[in-house]
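Cross-posted from the bioinformatics board.
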Amino acid sequence: MGIERCETGIPELDQILRGGIPKGNVVLLAGGSGMGKTTLTLEFLAHGAERGQRGLFMSVTEPVQTLRRNADEYLFMQREYFEDGRVRLVDLRAVMQRMEMAEASAFTFEDTAALVEVFESVVREYGIKRLVVDSITAICQRIEDPGRIRDFVFQLGLTLSELECTMILTSETPPRKLVYSPFGVEEFIADGIIFLSEMERHNDLVRTLQVMKMRGTDHSRAKFMMDISEFGISLAPLLKKFGDTAAVGGVG
Ligand SMILES: Nc1ncnc2c1ncn2[C@@H]1O[C@H](COP(=O)(O)OP(=O)(O)OP(=O)(O)O)[C@@H](O)[C@H]1O
Ligand SMILES: [Mg+2]
């Protein structure tokens, strides 16, 4: 019997992952600025909402009003998802206020433990099955002792995985470098890494997506061309390598 999957809603990516992200996995979505991290996660949440799975987007870097405005531009995102609570946009600052934490201060060990508890209680309370943290980098940068980053990400993943919640953490990386996270520990703790980048091709700059790892499933490791439009993300094979193309069902 196959494992349970959480479809991303991007058909080609689901084929690359042989059906979707294994349920409960923690996935690091790494990429430079403007590479499409937020768009991919919004599509992931919209797909869940369409199937009645509740999603939560924890915004760390962008005010939720801006995010909501940007989300409205995408045709995959329905207004009703926000209105009936299938997609919740939460500002980390609001959470911190609830925790009576000073906005500018660094996170102590106790703060990070409290943060994991908040995530857990929100996920339980609303029955969240898809969680996005955009970005985990911005949270990690505020952790007082970098030695604690590993514990924090590990605890967060473990806690939510037990609640059968599939999580995408976005990771901000420098442009065009094969680096998945600024602290270099997030990728070891994450069950999966999806890497967004760009490359020159025929004098044009094309976006690319590559699944670098995904625990619990076979997957293509090929690099795909990625396009963003108002319909969302679409992928096409970059190299028509025999075998891989066939394995993803001739995507594109
Ligand atoms: N409606 C749209 N149609 C086509 N392309 C769009 C649309 N909306 C956004 N984009 C493209 O997507 C890019 C932004 O993607 P997104 O915000 O998902 O990137 P990001 O990786 O989250 O960036 P950051 O690191 O700055 O948060 C824009 O720069 C633009 O090129
Ligand atoms: Mg973004």
